[in-house]
From TrEMBL:
Catalysed reaction, written as an equation: alpha-D-glucose = beta-D-glucose
Gene3D superfamilies: 2.70.98.10
Record: residues binding beta-D-galactose: N62, R63, H160, S161, Y162, D232
Gene Ontology annotations of biological process type: galactose catabolic process via UDP-galactose, Leloir pathway; glucose metabolic process
Subcellular location, record wording: Cytoplasm
Listed EC numbers: 5.1.3.3
Subunit structure as annotated in this protein's UniProt entry: Monomer.
Name of the protein described by the UniProt record: Aldose 1-epimerase
Gene name as annotated: mro
Length: 334
């Protein structure tokens, strides 16, 4: 377990099992600290971890249809662990392996590295991945992702923290206000696989271009919400032209505590998931029972099932290339 603290008393704890962010303690508008991520007090609590609480997800975060993709003329088969889909890297994804942890030199942070061997969970290539968590004195948690491979492979890595800015276990997230910097999303079919359409959010309950209460439209009679039982979609982050720099993807505000989370990223999209599958079967920290929609995830990433959608931005990493992405979680209160 690595504990990162900054000059404002913000504290982030992360462990080498699954690269899991175990807790994030930040102040509210009155200076009261609370832990704002769902999780467990013990390692055993995370084994198993069906909701992927706090974990790094990969080699391919999100879904690959029918657990199959073709690359360079060869078809690869992945474990189907979500109906017929392969979800979050398969049966033993990056969330369930032990990473090597090392403190960052001269910085408040930790680097987790992992070698995913050729053929692991069906993916090609010896894949070396490094995820660093760094905490700054401006209350930013900076996530840096870096990876290389010796055979071409699809890659999509993300972070699966469930936030509740009122404090973990403190009710559902329906009163949180969310802004997503995205004019379009990728509609899904019954299996939550993108249909290939890029749909405008305008005029739909998925329009979060202006700050909106999560609960105000979540149960609207709209095909995408019915299929996903709430929000569980990939929003395409607005960017100028081919810019691949850090942009604001999301802002979340919790009115009773004033806590704010801003998410910026170099990634093309963000999966906004409202914990629709939490159902009270997981008891987390302090005996808190995590009921439906007790946390929300903002998983910055590529579009789901990209290896089967040649028209989506490519997720293929080739030998000799280095994959690099950055996501920043910034905490404040107002
Ligand atoms: C992702 C998916 C959800 C769900 C969770 C884990 O966010 O998009 O559908 O599988 O992971 O429960």
């Amino acid at each position: 377990m690595y504990t990162l603290t900054n000059s404002h008393g913000v504290e982030v704890r992360a462990m080498n099992y699954g690269g899991i962010i175990v807790s994030i303690r930040v102040a509210d508008r009155k200076g009261q600290f609370a832990d704002i991520v769902l999780g467990h007090e013990t390692l055993e609590g995370y084994i198993p971890n069906p909701p992927y609480l706090g974990a790094i997800v990969g080699r391919y975060a999100n879904r690959i249809a029918n657990g199959k993709f073709a690359l360079d003329g060869k078809t690869y088969t992945l474990p189907q662990n979500d109906g017929t889909n392969s979800l979050h890297g398969g049966l033993k994804g990056f969330d369930k392996v032990v990473w090597d942890g090392a403190p960052l030199k001269g910085k408040t942070g930790v680097a987790f590295t992992y070698l995913s061997k050729d053929g692991e969970e069906g993916y090609p290539g010896n894949f070396k991945v490094k995820v660093t968590y760094m905490l700054t004195d401006t209350n930013e948690l900076i996530l840096d992702y870096e990876a290389t491979t010796d055979k071409a492979t699809p890659i999509n890595v993300s972070q699966h923290s469930y936030f509740n800015l009122a404090g973990e276990g403190n009710g559902d997230i329906l009163n949180h206000e969310v802004m997503l910097n995205a004019d379009r999303f990728t509609p899904v079919d019954q299996k939550l696989i993108p249909t290939g359409e890029l749909r405008a959010v305008k005029g739909t309950p998925l329009d979060f271009t202006k700050p909106t209460r999560v609960g105000s439209r979540i149960d609207d009679n709209y095909d995408q919400l019915t299929l996903a039982h709430g929000y569980d979609h990939n929003w395409i982050i607005n960017r100028k032209g081919a810019d691949k720099g850090l942009v604001l993807a999301a802002r979340v505000y919790e009115p009773t505590t004033g806590r704010v989370l801003e998410v910026s990223t170099t990634q093309p999209a963000v999966q906004f998931y409202t914990g629709n599958f939490l159902d009270g079967t997981v008891t987390g920290k302090h005996g808190h029972v995590y009921q439906r929609r007790y946390g929300l995830c903002l998983e910055t990433q590529h579009y789901p099932d990209s290896p089967n959608h040649p028209d989506f931005p490519s997720t293929i990493l080739k030998p000799g290339e280095t994959f690099r992405q950055k996501t920043v979680f910034k905490f404040s209160a107002k």
